[in-house]
Design a protein that fits this description.
Helix content of chain B: 25-40%
Structural class of chain B: alpha/beta
Structural class of chain A: mainly alpha
Oligomer: heterodimer
Largest interface: A-B, 40 and 42 residues
Number of domains of chain A: 1
Radius of gyration of chain A: 23 Å
Number of helices of chain A: 15
Strand content of chain A: under 5%
Shape of chain A: globular
Radius of gyration of chain B: 24 Å
Number of strands of chain A: 0
Number of helices of chain B: 10
Shape of chain B: globular
Strand content of chain B: 25-35%
Largest sheet of chain A: none
Chain lengths: ~300, ~300
């Protein structure tokens, strides 16, 4: 500290520049949260898990685009498109486990860390209210999850358009699916984020939060599958609502107008609107619980 | 415009603990020391002033803004340094303070400039680009002060800013607090249970105990000079006292020191001459001040 005396003598300058309002600051925190969900702004190791999972979610789409390009040059593109298991309507079930792992890895980082290290008083002693903070965090994680889910779908669309003999016809074939996969990805991102955020916000210890999120996402679908195999009846049907994966599966099938891939969803045979209602209730409930947590937490 | 006013401010925690008990204050800008024992209600008061905590009853204003209804507005102009650890370990000081600047409403370019400026002021140089986990307690305290200053507040609330620091670190932190209040022109309220520290940086003092006001006044009124001169010598205090008595002063021996009654400036010269005549090893000649500790007796 020997040089400090000299440097101090430069004098203090105040700040007379512009100051942004609450909305701009909330949006800024949302963007910072989106970046943090991918480990941007932290060391290289923080990027491995989010980018790794996003890359794994993207891999099937890249493979399918590559094969489609090769096969369509051989003139059998349409036949392949019919037979491929990797389509817009089935992509969510291909990647949902990866998206859940993304939530389990990143939600504790975004909802637990500030509590664990006592940073919240520094946030709440600034412009944002507690609810602004919670909503910015939720929005940032939801956007990050949405990207993991939707980018592979966009890649498939680009691949299909480029591989088609006539790009205009190729795009016309794809056009109907674009709003569907955007909607399906958005609902999936919102529900998975809401559930993961509740657990992470109420469980500041990182390891417990991650384990809890994985358990809540992975265990119920297994239970549902087993019970729907063994027993029929309303109890088995309504158990479906404990499984986020099955709710999203049902909603995805409803959006695309296809049959669900999950046997449990097929067996339960609920009307399509039930899945939309369950998703909406799940999102609203999750957001409410996260907001409540930050009203109460000391800071 | 008063800096802070409180009117019958009371805070009872759910467990039945009364942290503030009808506190009424009016503070003018300056460097204000908020003293009291641990648990006297200092942190609770600061957190209510920030709008982080709701009072049970009573009201308070900061910079003329009601803390209950205008929290968002007033927090723009207030910086807060909490007592406890509040820094994430895996980001650099630059990134963290920059983020806090953005959260106070500074646009990206302004946030960058202010971050560089304020980290320089608190004395963080090359370290600012390393993760906070590798910082010493002293460096962490500087980052905490920097984030409170980064948006150029008009009022700084510091809760035990020398917590965990070694004596050299304390001196540096207190010097920074003093500079903030004097050179930067920012009003400061610094809460501390260490009277000796408060005495060194503040010009105004608020003493609270069990959530109630003991006294609020300029520091001088707490620690005014007394009419006693303290003369410390390594040896021969008896001989010195005898010499002073002969010279017509009232002097009492207290171990190695001699306490001399001081009614005008005369005794200073007599003491100096007597010490020189006797050839005594002099340690200090000082006017005795009332200690702050007497407040809490």
């Amino acid at each position: 500290m020997s040089a400090s005396g000299n440097i101090y003598d430069l004098g203090y300058q105040g700040y007379d520049g512009p100051r942004l309002g609450r909305v701009a600051v909330t949006v800024g925190l949302l963007r910072a949260t989106l970046a943090a969900a991918y480990g941007i702004g932290r060391g290289g190791r923080a990027k491995v898990v989010p980018f790794g999972l996003a890359a794994m979610a993207l891999l099937p789409a890249v493979i399918v685009v590559g094969i489609t390009a090769l096969v369509s040059q051989a003139g059998a593109g349409d036949a392949l498109a019919e037979a491929s298991p990797i389509r817009h309507d089935s992509y969510l079930s291909v990647t949902s486990t990866l998206i859940m792992l993304f939530c389990a890895a990143q939600a504790p980082e975004l909802f637990g860390k500030d509590q664990r290290y006592g940073v919240l008083p520094l946030y709440f002693s600034r412009i944002l209210t507690r609810s602004d903070y919670a909503l910015a965090r939720l929005g940032g994680l939801a956007l990050a999850v949405f990207l993991v889910s939707v980018v592979p779908q966009v890649v498939i669309t680009f691949g299909a358009v480029l591989a088609a003999n006539d790009p205009v016809t190729g795009f016309a074939d794809e056009a109907a699916d674009i709003p569907r996969y955007i909607a399906s990805s958005a609902f999936a991102a919102a529900l998975l984020t809401a559930v993961a955020a509740v657990i992470a916000a109420w469980t500041p210890r990182r390891a417990y939060a991650t384990a809890g999120i994985i358990a809540v996402f992975i265990v119920p679908p297994i239970m549902v599958a087993i019970v729907s195999e063994l027993a029929a009846g309303d109890a088995a049907r309504f158990l479906l609502f404990t499984s986020v994966a099955d709710i999203l599966e049902g909603l995805n099938a409803a959006i695309f107008g296809t049959l669900a891939a999950s046997p449990a969803v097929l067996a339960a045979d609920f009307p399509e609107w039930v899945y939309l209602a369950a998703t909406t209730v799940g999102i609203a409930g999750g957001v409410a619980l996260v907001l409540r947590r930050y009203q109460g937490v000391s800071g | 415009m008063p800096l802070v006013t409180t009117d019958a401010l009371t805070k009872r925690y759910p467990g039945g603990v009364t942290a503030l008990d009808g506190l009424t204050l009016e503070l003018e800008p300056g460097i204000i020391g908020l003293v009291g024992a641990n648990g006297a209600g200092k942190s609770t008061l600061l957190r209510i002033l920030l709008g982080l905590l709701d009072a049970t009853s009573g009201s308070a204003t900061v910079l003329d803004h009601d803390v209950r209804t205008e929290g968002t507005t007033l927090r723009r102009y207030v910086g807060y340094m909490p007592e406890y650890d509040c820094l994430p370990p895996d980001v650099t000081a630059t990134d963290f303070v920059g983020q806090m600047a953005r959260l106070s409403g500074l646009p990206a370019s302004g946030a960058r400039e202010r971050t560089a400026e304020v980290l320089r002021h608190v004395g963080l140089y090359e370290e600012r680009y390393r993760p906070i986990s590798g910082y010493s307690t002293g460096m962490k305290q500087r980052v905490k002060l920097a984030q409170a200053l980064v948006h150029d507040p008009r009022l700084l609330l510091l809760d035990e800013p020398t917590n965990g620091l070694d004596p050299a670190g304390r001196d540096e932190m207190l010097a920074l607090v003093r500079r903030t209040g004097t050179e930067f022109g920012i009003a400061v309220i610094v809460a501390s249970h260490l009277l000796g520290e408060i005495e060194r940086v503040c010009d105004h003092l608020v003493a609270i105990d069990a959530g109630a006001l003991i006294r609020a006044a300029p520091l001088g009124e707490f620690t005014g000079h007394t009419g006693t001169l303290v003369v410390e010598v390594e040896e021969g205090s008896d001989r010195l006292a005898a010499a002073l008595l002969t010279a017509g002063l009232r002097a009492v021996v207290d171990g190695r020191t001699v306490l001399v009654d001081l009614h005008d400036d005369g005794p200073w010269d007599v003491v100096r001459d007597s010490v020189a005549d006797l050839g005594l090893p002099l340690v200090r000649i000082q006017q005795h001040r009332r200690g702050l500790e007497e407040l809490f007796r």
